[in-house]
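Intended use. Records like the one below are meant for learning the mapping from a protein sequence to its folded structure. Do not use them to infer anything beyond what is encoded.
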Amino acid sequence: MSDDDDIPLPKKSRIYYGSLEEKERERISKGEGGYLGREARKLGVEAGHINISSGEFYDVEDHISERQAEVLAEFERRKRARQINVSTDDAEVKACLRALGEPITLFGEGPAERRERLRNILSVVGADALKKTEKLEDAKKGRQEHQQTWYHEGPSSLKTARLYIARFSLPRALKRLEEARANKETPDASRTARQQELHKGLRALNNFCSQIGDDRPISYCQFSPNSKLLATASWSGLCKLWDIPDCRLVRTLRGHSTNVGAIVFHPQATISLSEKDCNMASCAADGSVKLWNLESDEPVANIEGHTVRVARVAWHPSGRFLGTTCYDHSWRLWDLEAQEEILHQEGHSKGVYDIAFHRDGSLVGTGGLDAFGRLWDLRTGRCIMFLEGHLKEIYGICFSPNGYHAATGSGDNSCKIWDLRQRKCIYTIPAHHNLLSAVRFQPTDGHYLLTGAYDNTAKIWSHPGWSPLKTMAGHEGKVMGLDISPNGQLIATCSYDRTFKLWTSE
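Structure written out for the chain above:
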């Protein structure tokens, strides 16, 4: 026999043709189904074709039911989303997203996608989530207002002053409105012709006179109400009066021992006020405030109460009150008839630099080193407008004669125009290449705005277009102060180069 005879022959599997139904019935009737099934499973596990872990199972029916529940919940959410009304205003959509604590926009997201995202969020958190958020915000604001608003009883002199200011300002406001109505009836052609003539004269402005005013930088200048005198203040502590237009020195006022911040004329000085009376007021860096007449070189009175630097001083249009700004974060109002301080007003987080009174006498504006300005109602004591928008300190503030515009100059090199009726900034003038030191409206009609800055120039801007009309360059140092004569004929600028210049049209 050969070796091949010992090899067992493989068992051939039986092949069935046709249906196996009869064979299956016969196998099940004999009870072989369970045994054969277990044997087959055992053989499959041993062969590695079936992998079964002990003690673990997977419930297919439960998994299917959970999946169905998720699908049904998604359908319900989409149904709710279709029923939610979302505003088509993109600003309102952003406000709603912010109220819900969601990002107001995503990268590459347009208004339609943002609106759909808000609808999906509301379908999850509920359509009432916005109402609840608004109620919480209103309650929070109410608590904040309750915490921030506080009052204390003022002196009887303050009440008397407020009543006086109210009686003084209301007739002036009525007169201003009557003038505005009369001007409105003027034909447009006449108004346009006058404006063009004014702009033509402003573009022709030239340096009329240049005078060395002191040994130290000149920090401030102002014309007298009759436009025949110019007062200058210097870092040497001296204040001087100059005859206009000859630029002849009339008087040197000696009284301050340090840098003088400002010197201002009484509203009726050189017009109806006697020369013996108090005609001027000045302030200095040592906190001193002095009152002057037009006859003496010495101050007639001192106002005491400031302990730190007083930056600016301004007369109320009535001439009875004097406002001062201080580096102790406050400004003060003094009643010169009662010879006392009637208001010590806080409100700025840093020093207060400039102050200006409204033409009617009802409002006062303050500009602070905290980059904010405030408008105060002197009749009620309330802050009626918060000037927010500058990036750096506010060094100048001025009201327009029209009664509803105000301008602020800042260390961010810009000048902002504010509308008191709308209570917002209506225009920002990128005015200079360095910080603005002063701003002035034309005192008669407010048809142009004058700005001075540390880029050694002063500029004139048209109103209401705010386009540049003239750049007055000539100083060798930064322009620290400027003014426009009440008759509108002259413009004065004073500088760090120790000179002041007069400008007029040819």
